[in-house]
């Protein structure tokens, strides 16, 4: 088992080595409070996986989509997009991924709604 202090030591040494390699013109981004040295960068980067999964569902038939899952993505994406603008530091990168999560959820909900509407129309004829 690796001790947390050992992991911290490895992380600090890695960052110190990378600090020397980052070009001067990128130092502001590199050292930003929500930059690549922080969880405020890596959490949204990993969250893009939700957007990619949502885009992958665009080819899935509407009858196989989950209304609750799509609604959850739409609502949480909307809530967290707003939250990203009131936290310190303001994290526009996190806001952008949350906006895309919300948009993919809303789009999937519209596909489900249109499918259900067409099913009701077909049953009524």
TrEMBL record:
Keywords: Membrane, Mitochondrion, Mitochondrion inner membrane, Transmembrane, Transmembrane helix, Transport. Belongs to the mitochondrial pyruvate carrier (MPC) (TC 2.A.105) family. This is Mitochondrial pyruvate carrier. Mediates the uptake of pyruvate into mitochondria. Pfam families: MPC (PF03650). One of its GO terms (cellular component) is mitochondrial inner membrane. It comes from Darwinula stevensoni. GO terms for biological process: pyruvate import into mitochondria. It is found in: Mitochondrion inner membrane. Its main location: mitochondrion. It is a multi-pass membrane protein.
């Amino acid at each position: 088992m690796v001790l947390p202090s050992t992991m911290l030591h490895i992380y600090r040494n890695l960052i110190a080595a990378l600090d020397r390699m980052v070009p001067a013109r990128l130092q502001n981004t590199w050292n930003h409070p929500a930059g690549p040295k922080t969880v405020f960068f890596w959490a949204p980067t990993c969250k893009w996986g939700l957007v990619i999964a949502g885009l992958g569902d665009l080819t899935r038939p509407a009858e196989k989509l989950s209304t609750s899952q799509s609604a959850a993505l739409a609502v949480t994406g909307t809530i967290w997009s707003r939250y990203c603008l009131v936290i310190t530091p303001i994290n526009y990168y996190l806001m952008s991924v949350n906006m895309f999560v919300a948009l993919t959820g809303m789009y999937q909900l519209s596909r489900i709604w249109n499918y259900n509407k067409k099913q009701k129309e077909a049953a009524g004829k």
